[in-house]
Amino acid sequence: MTVLQLISEEGKPVSEVIGPIDTRYRSGEINTRVADAKSVMADVEKRYAAEGATIDHLDGVTIGFPDWWFNLRASNTEPLLRLNAEAETPELLATKTADWALRSAGVSSTTRVAVVAIVFLGVYVVMFVVRFLLLDRMFGRLAARESENRGGEVGP
Predict the structure, then answer these.
(1) Which of 55, 74, 124, 134 could form a disulfide with 37 if both were Cys (CB 3.0 to 4.6 A apart)?
(2) Rounded to whole angstroms, how far apart are CA atoms 56 and 37?
(3) Alpha-carbon gap, residue 98 to 113, rounded angstroms
(4) Is the pLDDT of residue 16 over 70?
(5) In 3D, which of 90, 44, 51, 89 has the Cα closest to residue 70?
C-alpha cells in the first residue's frame, strides 16, 4: 500500500516514477518449440554455469551476469521454452537474443558468431541513423526558430 500511496502522491505516471531505476532493455517473451525442455534447460544451465553465471531456479532457470540476464522456463501447456532477457544496452540484448535464436535452431557456432556480429552491426547502424535523423530534426527546428526570431533573415 505504501508504494501505491507514494506513486499517487507523485502525480506522475508509474513509468515516469520508476524510470530512474528501470534502466534495462527487455526482449519480451521469445517462445521456442522443443522436444525435451528439461534437457535443453539443463544444457543451457551447464553452459552458462561454466562461464561463471549466477543460477536461480525459482521459475525455470534464471541465468545472470552483471550486464544481462535471462529466464528460461518450460510452458505448462505446450512443448515450448519461454525466454525473457534483459540487458544494459539494446546492442547487448540484440546479440544475446540472436545467439539464443540461432542456438535453438541448431545453427553451428561459426555461423552463429557471424550472424550475431551482423545483428550487432545492424543495431549500431540503425541507432546511428535514428540519432542522425533526430539531430537533423532538432537542428532543423532550431534553425527555423532562429530564422523566425530574425524576421525571416538568413545568416549571422
Answers:
(1) 74
(2) 17
(3) 10
(4) yes
(5) 44
What CATH number has the domain bearing residue 29?
3.30.310.50
Question: Does any domain span residue 154?
Answer: no
Name residue, grid cell 525466454: 83
Predicted TM-score of the model (pTM): 0.63
44, 72 contact by CB (below 8 A): yes
Q: At 135, is the secondary structure helix, strand, or coil?
A: helix
- What is the tens place of the pLDDT at every residue in 51-103? 999 999 999 999 999 999 999 999 999 988 898 999 999 888 888 887 776 66
Q: Is 87 helix (H, G, I), strand (E, B) or coil?
A: strand
Its domain, for residue 67, covers: 2-149
Q: Classify burial at 91, counting beta carbons within 10 Å of its beta carbon; exposed 0-12, middle 13-18, buried 19 or more.
A: middle
Q: Is residue 156 part of a domain?
A: no
40 found inside a domain = yes
Count up the domains in the chain and report the number: 1
Identify any residues that bridge with 74 across adjacent strands, giving them in sequence order: 81
Tens digits of residue pLDDT in 138-147: 566 656 666 6
Q: Is residue 142 part of a domain?
A: yes
CA-CA-CA-CA dihedral for 19, 135, 95, 101, to nearest 10: 90
